[in-house]
Amino acid sequence: MESTGHPRPTICRVLPAAREDRLRAGRTREISGHPCPDDWGNVAIAGRPCPRDAMSKESKATKLARAGKVILGLRKRYKPGDILVIDGVSRTRDEVIAIFQQHIDALRAKDTRYAAYRSAVVFERKLAKQVLALWLHMQKLFNATLGPHGPPTFGMKARRKPGPKTTAAKLAGVQKRAKKRAPK
């Protein structure tokens, strides 16, 4: 039975040591499917390195909550002059708090910029409707007052009056209409 869903990735697993004695050392077997989260250390998917975290990107709410909790915890447990050594770098409590606060401020500034962008889009669409109506009326005005040569000077196409048709053109039009109206 064939699967109709998404193709499963090819997963290369290093065989356990107990099975290696039967096979050549370092040989892997390919299986299809999705690895269990505890298998990430032994899995390479389609030649890409293993992800460190199987989760998708973090949401803004998660980032805000985490930064807020870290700030509260640092203020609760450490005094203002305390030095923290994090990943081999010495920082004061206030420096660490400032970094997390900058992250919170950046997330909120992004929200403000996005809100401004959305209001600008709404404003532009409102103006686009007004401009289109005005443009159509101006085109009619220029055609009426300046004649057929007026609108092109304003970037508009001049109205073209259909000229006399030849017999061949009329015949082609009749055949085209007949083809469209013919039952299928």
Concise description?
With 184 residues, this protein is mainly α.
Structural features, described:
The protein is mainly alpha-helical and 184 residues long. Among the domains are: 36 residues, no CATH class; 82 residues. The protein is 49% helix and 11% strand. The protein has four helices and five strands, in the order E-H-E-E-H-E-E-H-H. Strands 2-1-3 form a three-stranded antiparallel beta sheet, with no helix packed on it. Strands 4-5 form a two-stranded antiparallel sheet. It is elongated. It starts with 9 loop residues before the first strand and ends with a helix.
Got a strand count? Answer: 5
| Helix-strand category | mainly alpha
Task: Give the fraction of residues assigned to helices.
Answer: 40-55%
Shape: elongated
How would you state the average pLDDT, rounded? 77
Low-confidence stretches: 10-15, 22-28
Name the strands of the widest sheet in spatial order.
Answer: 2-1-3
Order of helices and strands: EHEEHEEHH
What is the radius of gyration?
35 Å
- Percent of residues in β-strands: 5-15%
Quickly count the helices: 4
Largest sheet, in brief, is: 3 strands, antiparallel
In whole angstroms, how far apart are the ends? 40 Å
Any descriptors?
184 residues, mainly alpha, three-stranded antiparallel beta sheet, two-stranded antiparallel sheet, 4 helices, elongated
Chart the SSEs and their pairings.
Elements: E1 10-14, H1 17-20, E2 28-32, E3 43-45, H2 60-77, E4 83-86, E5 89-92, H3 93-146, H4 167-181
Helix pairs in contact: 2-3
